[in-house]
Write a structure and sequence with these properties.
The structure is a single chain. The chain is an alpha/beta fold. It is globular. It has a single domain, classed as Rossmann fold (3-Layer(aba) Sandwich), CATH 3.40.50.300. An eight-stranded mixed beta sheet has the order 3-4-2-5-1-6-7-8, with helices on both faces. Helix content is about 45%, strand content about 15%.
Length: about 325
């Protein structure tokens, strides 16, 4: 059980201030000096896709959303944040990466050297697989990663972070470092219970008060909305959080087939109903992003310097 004093937000704030004071992390290979071109970059829309339990299709949803955004002409970054159990490369059917985020954390390579290209021009930051030492990042590793990403001289429109499942320290770190939090649940009662538990931890311990919900493996839209209503009622009564229903993904044999052939269904069957569902979710999310740059009480730690600069100029 997570203790109330274990405040990940406070830790991230401290890390961010240390980074700001230091100007650059010692040995951070990919942290070039701030220049005028870098300061003019747009702030990407960022979202963590997470779940209370595994096996709910989180990675499949993340990958297909990335495909949908790329097809709209947007520059997409996909971060595999399940650092010790990476599988995005498997889902996409691309060759196992030679280098991973681990090489960046250990200051051997830069983000540019680690990043690989996926289908539709998606940029992927791959994680390592079977590396137990990455299951809980140290504070110095978090500080280094924040600095590398914030100063990366790459210009993205959308950044999707595929976290691990559950409420580990790594999951909370990535969830709290970005703009929006998407929770994936299925109609299975254990999935609904675990989704609520995840939101409860993030709200009570870290003051996260806005969540986006996608219901996977729904028989129909009515079943998906029943799951949403159940979660929304309980969350509103006991947590006082805002839960947005952004869409559902139906049960479809094409999804299982796409896993076997290692190609996203949005590529193999772009006109299928399940692919259209990903298109609708992508549209709903973009609307939410554009309506509100960041929710009240939420801080963004990746690309924070760019966001601070954007807000400063908008107020002047």
């Amino acid at each position: 059980m997570i203790k109330d004093l274990d405040n990940q937000v406070a830790t991230l704030k401290e890390l961010a201030e240390r980074r700001k004071a230091a100007g650059m992390v010692k040995g951070a290979l990919s942290a070039p000096p701030v220049n005028e071109e870098l300061s003019q970059r747009k702030v990407p829309h960022t979202m963590a896709i997470t779940s209370g339990k595994g096996g709910v299709g989180k990675t499949l949803i993340t990958v297909n959303l990335a495909i949908q955004y790329a097809r709209q002409g947007l520059k997409v970054l996909l971060i595999d944040a399940d650092l010790g159990l990476a599988n995005i490369d498997v889902v996409l059917g691309i060759e196992a990466p030679q280098f991973t985020i681990q090489d960046v954390l250990e200051d051997r390579l830069t983000l540019d050297q680690v990043a690989i290209q996926g289908p539709e021009g998606i940029t992927i930051l791959p994680a390592a697989s079977g590396v137990a030492g990455l299951s809980a990042l140290t504070e110095e590793q978090k500080l280094s990663l924040m600095d590398h990403i914030d100063r990366w001289n790459a210009d993205f429109d959308v950044v999707l972070v595929d976290t691990g499942a559950g409420i580990s320290e790594n999951v909370r770190f990535f969830v709290l470092a970005v703009e929006r939090i998407m929770v994936i649940a299925t109609p299975d009662p254990t999935s609904v219970t675990d989704a609520y538990a995840l939101m409860k931890v993030l709200f009570l311990n870290h003051r996260a008060s806005h969540f986006d919900l996608v219901v996977n493996q729904a028989r129909d839209e009515a079943e998906a909305k029943d799951v949403f209503r159940t979660l929304a009622q309980v969350a509103d009564k006991f947590l006082n959080v805002v839960l947005n229903f952004v869409g559902s993904v139906p049960e479809d044999a094409l999804l299982a087939q796409s896993v076997r052939v290692q190609k996203p269904v949005s590529i193999t069957h772009p006109e299928a109903p399940v692919s259209k569902s990903f298109q609708k979710i992508a549209t709903s999310l973009m609307r939410l992003w554009r309506e509100k740059r960041h929710e009240e009480g939420r801080m963004i730690f990746f690309w924070r310097r760019l966001l601070d600069d954007t807000l400063m100029h908008s107020e002047s």
